[in-house]
């Protein structure tokens, strides 16, 4: 049972982080599509901001790879479940919220405001918590 719980945790870690990145990049990319109609000359800025929420999926994947070896001992199953749920949920919400920050920056950029740098700084704030979750998972 412990082994099943561990694998479930690893699956949730990878799956929830990926789902969050999917939602976050979709939120930002939808704003970018609308902004392209208004000002297509800034498409590279839109693309950079749209891609930022993808990093949480990468953090979930790295945490998955780095922690799956701990299941060599089935007694670590409950621990891996806890780590997986923690990292997965943190990355899920971090990516979605980062996508919303990036979407707002894309909208501002399309309206002629030079907000790319500020948006990247603001977008780093929710990402920080995904990084903390990754570091915490690697420290266990």
Can you put this structure into words, describing what you see?
The protein has helices at about 1-40, 45-50, 55-65, 75-110, 115-140. The chain is mainly alpha-helical. The chain has a single domain, classed as Four Helix Bundle (Hemerythrin (Met), subunit A). The model has no long low-confidence stretch (mean pLDDT about 95).
The total domain count is 1
- The CATH class is Mainly Alpha
Number of strands: 0
Instruction: Return residue spans where pLDDT drops below 50 for at least 5 consecutive residues.
Output: none
CATH-level-2 architecture: Up-down Bundle
User: What would you give as the CATH superfamily?
Assistant: lithium bound rotor ring of v- atpase
Structural class call reads mainly alpha
Helical residue percent band: over 70%
Overall pLDDT confidence: 95
Rg, Cα atoms, Å: 17 Å
Explain the layout of strands and helices.
Layout: H1 2-38, H2 43-51, H3 55-67, H4 77-110, H5 116-139
Helix pairs in contact: 1-2, 1-3, 1-4, 2-4, 3-4, 3-5, 4-5
Summarize the structure.
The protein is mostly helical and 140 residues long. Helix content is 84%, strand content 0%. The protein has 5 helices and no strands.
């Amino acid at each position: 049972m412990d082994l099943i719980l561990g694998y479930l945790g690893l699956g949730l870690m990878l799956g929830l982080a990926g789902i969050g990145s999917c939602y976050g990049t979709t939120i930002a990319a939808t704003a970018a599509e609308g902004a392209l109609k208004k000002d297509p000359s800034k498409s590279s800025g839109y693309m950079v901001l749209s891609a930022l929420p993808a990093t949480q999926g990468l953090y979930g994947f790295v945490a998955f790879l780095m922690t799956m070896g701990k299941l060599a001992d089935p007694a670590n199953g409950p621990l891996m479940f806890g780590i997986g749920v923690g990292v997965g949920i943190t990355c899920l919400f971090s990516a979605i919220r980062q996508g919303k920050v990036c979407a707002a920056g894309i909208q501002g950029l399309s309206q002629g405001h030079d907000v790319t740098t500020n948006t990247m700084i603001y977008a780093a704030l929710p990402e920080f918590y995904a990084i903390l979750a990754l570091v915490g998972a690697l420290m266990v």
